[in-house]
Amino acid sequence: MTQPKADIGLIGLAVMGQNLVLNMNDHGFTVAVFNRTVSRVDEFLAGQARGTRVIGTRSLEELVAALRPPRRVFLLVQAGPPVDHLISALLPLLSPGDIVIDGGNSNYADTIRRTSLVESHGLLFVGTGVSGGEEGARRGPSLMPGGSPDAWPHIREMFRAIAARTPDGDPCCDWVGSDGAGHYIKMVHNGIEYGDMQLIAEAYHLLRDAAGLSNDEMHDVFAEWNRGELDSYLVEITRDILAARDDEGRSVLDTILDAAGQKGTGKWTVRSAADLGVPMTLVAEAVFARALSALKEERTAAAHLLGGPVPAFSGDRAALVVDVRRAVYAAKIVSYTQGFMLLRRAAAEHGWDLDYGGIALLWRGGCIIRSRFLGEIRAAYSRQPDLPNLLLDDFFRSAADGCQAGWRRVVARAAEWGLPLPAMSSALAFYDGYRNARLPANLLQAQRDYFGAHTYERIDRPRGEFFHTNWTGRGGPVSSTPYNA
Q: Which residues pair with 56 in a beta bridge?
């Protein structure tokens, strides 16, 4: 009888799956592969995997038989029902202690459910975020594994070997927490990615339509920004996009329709923030900005009907570029502040013991939001692990304050020019709200009590005591029970 010799099995040979297999092979691991469309296994073995140790299999039974115990099966298939179907098919084929790993973009709530299901069969389950796209999968992704803690010792060496590295050489992979923690952190990563992309798009809009910069001039601007505090993968690729020309010499960017798509993780982030009562306003605006962009035909018609100012900048363009950079940086601080606020609230809700500095390290390399900036976040949590809000860290407080004047000028002038800045302006509104000791919510509570007897707390009494006023003289003493939905 042939002894099993594969270290891990991978199901799903789309581009991400193929690249991850080749990455594992490069690091000395033997991988058995399976794909529902079996012909893709043969094509992979005859193509990119030719000459490697990769083992092709043509059924789930054959895949499982090829694996050394404890068997590790990595699923890289479309999120949703396909994952559940594969788990159901694998459960009777695996033995206690074997490990099922979901590396797709699954919803964290599904991962919580699947962890419980798989563990009830004596197996272990891992839901891992994988970020970095096709290139990351091939050369080193950011990995965010969570699930059954007993699985980590059996996948640690492999995961950390294939992961990206920070500039200091640390692997961008570590165990993040139980059940759905890994996919939750990946979801928040993707939400922050939405915000970063929207901020860059707003900067591009300002520099193009207000300052009148050409794509070549903006290429130089983003190249300069990428050498400073905004050094990041997204700024880097924006620099390259602005310089790209097609075969006819036209700017590729200028030929692309201004209607953005989205796959859902940004919306998941906003929904979770709303459910947990976390004001993740910048990512919400980034999601809605994509939704607004998709209304291309309506916007084209409205452009001929709705009045407003035409951008007309006169002044020092170099000074405006500096102000835009400061606005992007300050708003980015707010975006990550809100993201880590959401992580803290989710950790309390689900009982996850999250290492926030460690999460920043996971995102420092390999993933789409990798940047110099994340090193500062890790340093902030190293200084104060229980930091309640990034804006309260000395570095970020000083940075936001230093950018504040330019940030305010950009938001104010954009309003005068009629240029939408949903992310930058919502970030400024959050900043001003957070630093304001008294907001007008007392009036909201009075209104709620007036029309619905929802009660309110008083500034001269302890928190947790609720009061009702008979505003009309007709309502009587009856009040609603206070609660937060």
A: 33
- Which residues lie closer than 8 Å to 78 by C-beta, 6 or more apart? 104
Residue 311 CB neighbours (<10 A): 17
At 149 the three-state DSSP class reads helix
Residues with a catalytic annotation lie at 186, 193
pTM attached to this predicted model: 0.94
Quick check: 119 and 98 in contact, CB under 8 A?
no
The pLDDT value given to residue 262: 82
* Contact between residue 458 and residue 245 where contact means Cβ atoms under 8 Å apart: no
Residue with structure tokens 């050094």? 231
Three-class secondary structure of residue 178 per DSSP: strand
Cβ neighbours around 272 below 10 Å, total: 22
Distance from C-alpha of 202 to C-alpha of 208, rounded to nearest angstrom: 10
Question: Which residue type, as a one-letter code, is found at position 84?
Answer: D
Written as six digits, the tokens of 241 are: 């996009």
What is the separation of C-alpha 36 from the centre of its chain, rounded to a whole number of angstroms?
29
Residue 475: band (very low, low, confident or very high) from pLDDT cuts 50, 70, 90: low
Average pLDDT over residues 67-91: 97
CA distances for 53 relative to 10, 27, 38, 67, 248, angstroms: 14, 11, 18, 13, 44
154-160's contacts with Cβ under 8 Å and 24+ in sequence apart are 154/70, 154/72, 154/99, 154/124, 155/72, 155/99, 155/101, 155/126, 158/7, 158/8, 158/24, 158/27, 158/29, 159/128
Place of tokens 């997204």: 234
Pair of tokens at residue 466: 């609720």
Evaluate whether 171 touches 363 at the Cβ level (below 8 Å).
Answer: no
Please give the Cα distance from 95 to 110 (Å, whole number).
22
Count of CB atoms within 10 A of residue 300's CB? 9
- Residue pointed to by tokens 């012909």: 39
Query: CA quadruple 194, 195, 200, 201: dihedral positive or negative?
Result: positive
Helix/strand number for the chain, H first, E second: 19, 8
pLDDT of residue 235: 97
By percentage, how much of the chain surpasses pLDDT 70? 97
Which of 119, 40, 114, 129 is CA-nearest to residue 84? 114
CA-closest candidate to residue 423, choices 330, 341, 309: 330
Bridge partners, 251 (sequence order) = 245
Give the tens place of pLDDT for each residue, 294-337.
999 999 999 999 999 988 888 899 999 999 999 999 999 999 99
Q: Which residues contact 27 (CB under 8 A, 6 or more apart)?
A: 158, 161, 162
Which pLDDT does position 479 carry in this prediction? 64
